[in-house]
Design goal:
The protein is α/β, with parallel strands linked by helices and about 240 residues long. The chain contains 8 helices and 7 strands. The termini are far apart.
Length: about 240
Amino acid sequence: MLTVDFTRFPLAPGDRVLDLGCGAGRHAFECYRRGARVVALDRNGEEIREVARWFAAMEEAGEAPAGATATAMEGDALNLPFPDASFDVVIISEVMEHIPDDKGVLAEMVRVLKPGGRIAVTVPRYGPEKVCWALSDAYHEVEGGHIRIYRAEELLGRIREAGLRPYGTHHAHALHSPYWWLKCAFGVDNDKALPVRAYHKLLVWDIMKKPLATRLAERALNPVLGKSFVVYATKPHLPADAAL
């Protein structure tokens, strides 16, 4: 299930991509399939080892084009182990709401992104996320949990302050908002509640089968109920005189 829309955020074969806070690796895997040279980085060593295993399995199965590469590594988003201007593309999906120093993370992403490079940032959308917080303290008051809810203009302002130029936004995963409301209402760790189990089956069916009816429904509902807010931005080239 991808949050970044690669029709709005195109990759070229050979692009060097950083998936920052990659988690289980969903965006890193898609970039690898598209022929990119991918680095998936996360602070969670267990998840990184699993991502590395999936990269190896994809290579063995021939899922990535010739020239594509993939590396999984542990790292700190506030102290990235890469030189300046190392990447053509940076993706950070559902991460910034967890990190106290979000301005520091943006600064590091800008540092490692090449001039002219592109960045995709996704966070939980304000409205649906606010409902989750209202229904359940346990949803966010956990170690490593969500510490803030971004309004759209707040996130866009942070991105601009970091020196990036936003060029597009959208919302995603409208069908997932009711699922998380149910989880919060019945208990975030309670997977046995009938409404939660029934809705989870619907989501799994939708992800696996991709029926036209639910695709059209989600597309129509995303502007209203989309669980995620997505921003695409570029890093400007330095003016000729500033580069001297």
